[in-house]
Amino acid sequence: MAKKNTTIDDLAVMVQKGFEKTSTKEQVDHLESRVIRLEKNVATIKDLILEGHKKRIVKLEDEVKELREMFAM
Questions:
Q1: 3-class DSSP string for the chain
Q2: How far apart are CA 61 and CA 59, in angstroms?
Q3: pLDDT band at 64 (very low <50, low <70, confident <90, very high)
Q4: What pLDDT is recorded for position 73?
Q5: What is the pLDDT at residue 18?
Q6: What is the pLDDT of residue 22?
């Protein structure tokens, strides 16, 4: 197999192709802002779910307390 010498022009083309696949600052900033919004949304959903579970647990604790009081008579 013959070895091909890479010229400066070949190298320039390879570098240019590499830069074509690189994200722009605007694209990175846009993606970052979307990730931040997504993180906030996930935190909100998590808080809502946890709050719902807390309310259910308190309600169940109250019901268990009532049952204990009924059977303690």
A1: CCCCCCCHHHHHHHHHHHHHCCCCHHHHHHHHHHHHHHHHHHHHHHHHHHHHHHHHHHHHHHHHHHHHHHHHC
A2: 5
A3: very high
A4: 59
A5: 86
A6: 87
Hunting for tokens 């303690």 — which residue is that? 72
Residue 3 has pLDDT above 80, yes or no: no
AA identity, residue 13: V
Predicted model pTM: 0.56
For 31, half-sphere exposure in the C-beta direction (CA atoms, 13 angstrom radius) is 6
Structure tokens at 71: 């059977």
Structural tokens at position 6: 């890479």
Cα separation, 11 vs 14, whole angstroms: 5
Q: Rounded to an integer, what distance in angstroms lies between the CA atom of residue 16 and that of residue 8?
A: 12
